[in-house]
């Protein structure tokens, strides 16, 4: 694969992964427009490394905030850890349940089918983007019109709010286009969490979630054949990881500024427009 295509995908992944606009949808569209096969072993390896790069970007960007918010005392850390565990367990249970149901129904007649087989179907990505856009739009407008209401009154994420965020994250797992960060931050805001707390907690969950997701993709790659993990694909994937890391840092800074300025709802409008574009691309044969 040419280096410039790797760099383009890395920048798309890095920017979109950490913005509430669904990196999966953007990467799939970029791959199709460049004539790449999203399901090939080489592309799977590249995406694993791109996700790793954005995970490190999250850790670097939020480390100081996590230290101040979650590690100030041992008691506070235990409280937050409990909420992260509950949210992650709900994510796993709900996400895995949906995946199994889809594999047993949609793919009932297809041997050895996996949920990943849906990921390159733009006719599914488009409505997922629209659903995320509607949720973001509702949360953004509610916060904008109710600045003194319960939507901004809770100083930190409660156990109930953590459960809501984790459950919504589980809904995001099977569907590319249903933005994880957009859905979880919006759900937290609608549940009454302060905007900044919902953002920090959402990305803390992303760090916890990324290693098992990467491991799942690496296992699928191993089953696809050892040849995909040698030579040029590995070097290209490492290069992509670096660019995704740098793009991720830029995206996080932009995300925080937009949240602070009360323009969260604009991401919802973007997702709705993007869903129309993706649907039109599907209609034209992509």
What does the radius of gyration come to? 19 Å
Contiguous low-pLDDT stretches (5 residues minimum) are 148-153
Approximate shape: globular
The number of E-state strands comes to 0
N-to-C SSE string, H for helix and E for strand: HHHHHHHHHH
Judged by helices, strands and strand pairing, the structural class is: mainly alpha
Helix content: over 70%
- What is the strand content? under 5%
| Structural domain tally | 1
GO cellular component, one term: plasma membrane
Membrane topology: Multi-pass membrane protein
Enzyme class: hydrolase
Protein name: Undecaprenyl-diphosphatase
Describe the model.
- With 286 residues, this protein is mostly helical.
- It has one domain (3-283).
- The protein contains ten helices and no strands.
- It has helices spanning 3-17, 23-33, 41-70, 74-105, 122-145, 159-172, 180-190, 195-224, 232-260, 265-283.
- Helix 3 (41-70) packs antiparallel against helix 8 (195-224) and helix 3 crosses helix 9.
- The protein starts with a helix and ends with a helix.
- Its main location: membrane.
- One of its GO terms (biological process) is regulation of cell shape.
Quick tags:
mainly alpha; transmembrane; antibiotic resistance
Gist?
The protein has 286 residues and is an all-alpha fold.
Present the secondary structure layout.
Blueprint: H1 3-17, H2 23-33, H3 41-70, H4 74-105, H5 122-145, H6 159-172, H7 180-190, H8 195-224, H9 232-260, H10 265-283
GO molecular function, one term: undecaprenyl-diphosphatase activity
Transmembrane segments: 41-63, 84-102, 122-142, 196-214, 234-252, 264-282
Pfam families: BacA
């Amino acid at each position: 694969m040419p280096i410039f295509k790797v760099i383009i995908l890395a920048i798309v992944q890095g920017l979109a992964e950490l913005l509430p606009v669904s990196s999966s949808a953007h990467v799939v569209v970029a791959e199709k427009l460049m004539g790449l096969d999203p399901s090939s072993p080489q592309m799977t390896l590249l995406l694993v490394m791109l996700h790793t790069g954005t995970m490190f970007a999250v850790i670097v960007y939020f480390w100081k905030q996590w230290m101040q918010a979650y590690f100030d005392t041992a008691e506070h850390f235990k409280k937050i850890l409990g909420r992260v565990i509950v949210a992650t367990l709900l994510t796993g249970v709900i996400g895995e349940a949906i995946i199994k149901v889809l594999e047993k129904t949609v793919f009932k007649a297809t041997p050895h089918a996996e949920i990943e087989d849906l990921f390159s179907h733009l006719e599914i990505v488009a409505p997922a983007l629209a659903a995320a856009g509607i949720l973001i739009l509702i949360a953004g407008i509610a916060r904008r019109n109710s600045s003194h209401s319960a939507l901004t009154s809770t100083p930190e994420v409660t156990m109930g709010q953590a459960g809501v965020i984790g459950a919504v994250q589980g809904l995001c797992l099977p569907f590319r286009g249903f933005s994880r960060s957009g859905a979880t931050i919006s759900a937290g805001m609608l549940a009454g969490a302060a905007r900044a707390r919902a953002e920090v907690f959402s990305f803390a969950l992303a760090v916890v979630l990324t290693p098992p997701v990467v491991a799942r993709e690496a296992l699928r790659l191993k089953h696809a054949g050892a040849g995909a993990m040698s030579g040029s694909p590995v070097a290209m994937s490492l290069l992509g990881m670096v660019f995704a890391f740098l793009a991720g840092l830029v995206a996080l800074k932009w995300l925080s500024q937009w949240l602070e300025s009360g323009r969260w709802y604009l991401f919802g409008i973007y997702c709705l427009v993007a869903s129309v574009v993706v649907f039109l691309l599907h209609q034209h044969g992509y």
